[in-house]
Amino acid sequence: MRGTRRTRLCLAGVMAASALVATPAARAAERTDRHLADLVNPFIGSQNEGNTFPGAAVPFGMVQLSPDTGHSTGYDYTQKRIRGFSLVHLSGVGCRIGGDLPVLPTTGEVTQTDYARYAAGFSHADEQASPGYYRVGLDSGIRAELTASERTGVQRFTFPATDKANVLLNAGQSLHKPVASSVEILDDHTVRTGITGHGFCRDTGPYTVYTVTRFSRPFTAYGTWDGTTLHPGSRTGSGGAYVRFDTTEDRTVEATTALSYVDAAGAETNLRTEGGRSFDAVRDRARELWERRLAGVRVQGGDPVLRRTFYSSLYRSFLAPNIGSDADGRYTGWDRRIHHAAGFTYYQNWSLWDTYRTQAQLLALLAPREARDMALSVVKVDEDGGWLPKWGYGPVETNVMSGDPVTPFLTTAYQMGLLKGFEERAYRALRKNADGVPPADYPGIGREANAEYLAHGFAPYDKDRPLAKMGDSDYHHGASVTLEYALADAMLAQMARGLGHTADAARYAARARNYRRIFDPSTGFFRARDASGAFTGSADPARGVGFHEGTAWQYQWLVPQDLPGMVGLIGGNRAANDRLDAFFAYDRLLTDPERTAREVWVHGDAYDYYNAATYNPMNEPDLIAPYTYLATGQPWKTTDVVHAALTLFTDGPTGMTGNDDLGTMSAWNVLSSIGLFPIQPGYDTWGLSTPVFDRVDLTLDRHFWPSGGLTVTAPGTSAADRYIQTVRRDGTPNTRTYLTTAALRSLRTLGFTVGPRPSEWGTSPSAAPPVLR
After folding, report:
1. Residue 65: which of 221, 211, 249 has the closest Cα?
2. pLDDT tens digit string along 355-395?
3. Secondary structure (3-state) at 565
4. Would you state the pLDDT for residue 608?
5. Can you tell me the distance from the alpha carbon of 96 to that of 93, in angstroms, rounded to the nearest whole number?
6. Contact yes or no for 224/239 (Cβ under 8 A)
7. Residue 19 has pLDDT above 50, yes or no
8. Is 436 exposed, middle or buried (0-12, 13-18, 19+ CB in 10 A)?
9. Between 664-674 and 635-646, two packed helices, what is the crossing angle to 10 degrees?
């Protein structure tokens, strides 16, 4: 998303993912993949605005302990100085946030308080990272190692022999904009801080984090600073603190820092609960947690590059949302009051405009217990604060992005069976959100353009409308907002029908057809309307107005609830397929898929979303687009496009197709590689395309998935043999281009037979995905 935005891709050539054939050597290498964490490269996406981080975290942990090099979101692989190792990072966001309490080891006298000045040089030759662990040798001769538990970050520093080995704890500088900070040296082992900041893409907030750091040995000297003024021997300050050790004999110092979004007592509780273990013990546990998580998906086939990109994407899919409650269950709600999570873990950080399309479904499949608690946490945001979130960071609404992403996020949870016992509570919150607008004194904007949308069937485009609240405005993106509202209405209609609210279901289903209100027959594309209802902006669909991070070309396929209706507007399947072929540069794609992906689809600057008439694989509006062919009678073209797009994922620092947006793009890679994709986000429809692996074994939670596991096979899949000939569900032919969640629940095997040419599979009208009415 653009609260988290997309990145320019490296043009270095790599082998197409679909072309990685399972050779005997690859199969032999595969048998050695017993430690799946070894296949993960946390540096992927750390260059060219991928905005990932290489540091240490456990799945969904509150803490992401990672180096900051001076880039706005933390770490940039091209930069050569580390300012500190800080506690909070969001994977793949496009705006600055977090970076709280950067800690850096130094030697000699402490003379600087600005971390840009005291930053330490380093080389990638002396740097490594794996799930739950990071290590780097600094030019100062100090080795720094990082690991983490859910609510603590643990650092181990190995110093040269010196009596002036320092650790600097900077409470006054971070990635976000500081508001206030305090630091206290409590005793000869312990430092406590409070840090208040705001920021992200706009000056939203503020929010406060509390930390307490416990060192493994007493320090010999200490001091604090305020601004640029150092105070040796002082125990309190507003900027930061330094502590000193004598490492002439014992050269190692360990520090455990606990974090809380509640209060200082919460940080101390988290330290008591999760602290007290050695660095090695914490690292080993983090590694084991990742091994267990990654082992939920076992692949066979492909070469090591393909497996590394796949498991690295799977790893990033499990980095967020993040635990928000302390070890005792307390958390800070959106009313800024302290609450207690009873019977569930409270989560936070909601990049919903992005994650509702891919990651929500992947987590419901592979991590349903956590996904359930995440959905309940979103419901609690409404119950505590008064409204559902749009893009939430910690206990703060940022109002970043547009539309109504929370609705398909929660209806996905409902359709996947995650809201049992809470369906009506969730529905009440969704109904309020869909039919109204938050009050003026609430910081969120919700469906900001809802009054006009409900009255006239579209959100008007008004580029000059002042911001009512900080963040983005739905009025600035009226065309795409209309499509997003209509999609959300369609998904809410299905939930309402399932719960027996028939009148509501009919009302929302009627609103789901509002996408038609912005279709301009004179251009054959969607187009923004002004407040009077007149079409506005350029008639050129590549240069129109009112589309958030895209054009009418990219948004034309965002009608998953009624693709036949949309196709009818533009002239039927033949016209739609011609337009899809032009959109994907299909003729060129067949000749050279990888080059087409890199030179035709990817263009311009990282954040250049506009003035384009082709597919943009780097951003969310187009994530479903390749699967449109499943509804137009040419399903083999979905495989052609998806496999070409998968070549954009590589195993180096430039290997992310855009900002990851808290796992969104990574989840797209994982799902598309498996051959199952949520083509109607918010509902229960999974589109089928050719897997890139010969075999994928999914271990599923029996409480949510009675089969306990699903094996997906596609023997011989490759660039040459990538076209589906038949699909079988537990041995029974499946002629449709999709499966439902109900079918997946009891399914044990999904078998694809592939060949060198397209077949008749999935081409009949009855094979197309359903229309949601």
Report:
1. 211
2. 999 999 999 999 999 999 999 999 999 999 999 999 999 99
3. helix
4. 83
5. 8
6. yes
7. no
8. middle
9. 130
Closest to 624 (Cα-Cα) out of 546, 675, 555 = 555
Collect all residues with Cβ–Cβ distance below 8 Å to 608 and sequence separation of at least 6: none
Outline where 499-551 has alpha helix (H): 502-511
CB atoms within 10 A of CB 700: 19
What does the alpha-carbon distance between residue 121 and residue 201 come to, in Å, rounded to a whole number? Answer: 29
755-769 as b/e: b if 16+ CB within 10 A: eeebeebbbeeebbb
Phi/psi class of residue 446: alpha, beta or left (left: φ > 0; alpha: ψ in -120 to 50)? left
Angstrom distance (rounded) from CA 101 to CA 168: 10
Closest CA to 261 of 209, 188, 319: 209
Q: What value does the mean pLDDT take over residues 63-86? A: 97
Contact 135, 70 (CB under 8 A): no
- Amino acid identity at 129: A
Confidence tier at 657 by pLDDT (50, 70, 90) = confident
Identify the residue whose tokens are 């990817």.
Answer: 602
Give me 104's structure tokens. Answer: 């850096």
Structural tokens at position 628: 């449109």
Q: pLDDT > 90: what percent of the chain? A: 92
Cβ(402)–Cβ(555) below 8 Å: no
Residue 662, token pair as written in the block: 């808290």
542-581 confidence digits (pLDDT tens): 999 999 999 999 999 999 999 999 999 999 999 999 999 9
Give the span between the Cα atoms of 195 and 180, in whole angstroms.
Answer: 6
Task: List residues bridging with 259 in a β-sheet.
Answer: 211
8 Å CB contact between 670 and 314:
yes
Dump the DSSP string for 220-269: SEEEEEETTEEEET-SEESSEEEEEE--SS--EEEEEEEEESS-HHHHHH
Q: Which residue's entry shows tokens 């687009």?
A: 625
**Rounded distance between C-alpha atoms, residue 35 and residue 294, angstroms:** 9
What is the spatial distance between Cα 393 and Cα 322, in angstroms, rounded to a whole number?
10
Residue 198: the pLDDT is 86
For residue 522, give both structure tokens: 């004179």
| Helical axes 478-498 vs 502-511, angle rounded to 10° | 160
Reported as a pLDDT band with limits 50, 70 and 90, residue 628 is: very high
* Contact present, 355 and 409 (Cβ < 8 Å): yes
Are 199 and 205 within 8 A, CB to CB?
A: yes
- Token pair listed for 140: 């100062």
d(CA 198, CA 744): 43
pLDDT of 717-749, one tens digit each? 999 999 999 999 999 999 999 999 999 999 999
SS3 for 78?
coil
Give pLDDT tens digits for 602-621. Answer: 976 768 889 999 999 999 99
| Domains by residue range for the chain, with CATH | 53-292 (2.70.98.10), 301-319+343-767 (3.30.2080.10)
* pLDDT the model gives residue 22: 35
* DSSP 8-state code for residue 167: E
Which secondary structure element, helix H or strand E, spans residue 487, and what is its range? helix 478-498
How far apart are the C-alpha atoms of 339 and 336, rounded to whole Å? 9
Take residue 296 and report the two structure tokens written for it: 């939920």
Model confidence pTM above 0.90: yes
